[in-house]
Amino acid sequence: MISVLVADDEQPAIDELVYLLGQDPRVGVIHQASSGAEAVRLLTREPVDAAFLDIHMPGLSGFDLARALQRFEHRPALVFVTADEEGALEAFDLAAVDYLLKPVRAERLQRSVGRIVEALRPPAPDTSPAGEMIAVPLGGTTRMIRRDEVRYVQAQGDYARLHTEGGTHLVRVPISDLEKQWAEAGFVRVHRSYLVALAHVSRIRLGSDHPAVVVGDVELPVSRRMLPGLRDRLAQSSVRPRP
C-alpha cells in the first residue's frame, strides 16, 4: 500500500479526491494540505510515496511545490490535478507520473494509482537487445547496423527508411511491423510516417497547435491521434522517485 498527500486550496476538492483514493485498496495513509506551504511542512515530517497537487494554489503553486520537492531526499511521485489543460507540458518537464483533469473520474484515478505503483517498483534489469544488429541490403552486399544507432524511422510504402547519424538505410519492412517489434527497445510511433527512438529525442513540444519532437537537428510532427500514446510513454519513462 502507498501513502499519499492531497494538496488543494479548496476543501471540497480535497474531500472528493480523498474519498476516491480511499476506495482503492492500493492506497493506505492519505495526508491532506490546504496550501503549498502546509504541504512542504507536512512532507518534511511525513515523507509519502505520492503527492496529488492542485496547480493553482495561492502562494506556493503546485508547480512551485514540485520544484521544491526536487531538493528532498525522499521525493514522492507527482500527480498534478487541475482544470487547466495547458500545464501538461510543464508537468512532464517536472517528471510527473500523471496529469489529471478535474472533475476526476474514479476509473481515471485508478489508472493514475497504477502508474504510481509501477513508478515506485524497482526497475528490472534491462535485458533488451539494444545493440541488435540489422541487416541492410546495399547493392550486392549487406551492411550491418546497430538498432540503437537508429534515431528515427520514416515510412516509405512497404519499406522503411532508417535514419542514423551517419546516413539513411532502406529496409523492406513496413513501419507498422517495426513499431511492434521495437516498442520494447524505446521506439514510439508519433505520426503515420514516423517512428522515433525516445533515447535520441532532444526536445518535445506537445502543448502547441503543432506538436512535434526534435531528433538531432530534425523536427518531426506528432499527430493528434498519436499524442495520447506518446504522453503515456513519456509518463512511463519519467525519472523515478528515490525509494
UniProtKB/TrEMBL annotation:
Gene3D superfamilies: 3.40.50.2300, LytTr DNA-binding domain (2.40.50.1020)
RNA-binding among keywords: no
Domain HTH LytTR-type positions: 134-236
GO molecular function terms noted in the UniProt entry: DNA binding
Annotated keywords: DNA-binding, Phosphoprotein
List of residues that carry 4-aspartylphosphate: 54
Sequence ranges assigned to domain Response regulatory in this UniProt record: 3-117
Pfam families attached to this UniProt entry: LytTR, Response_reg
Chain ranges passing through the membrane: none
Keyword Amino-acid biosynthesis: no
Full protein name: LytTR family DNA-binding domain-containing protein
Organism the protein comes from: Agromyces soli
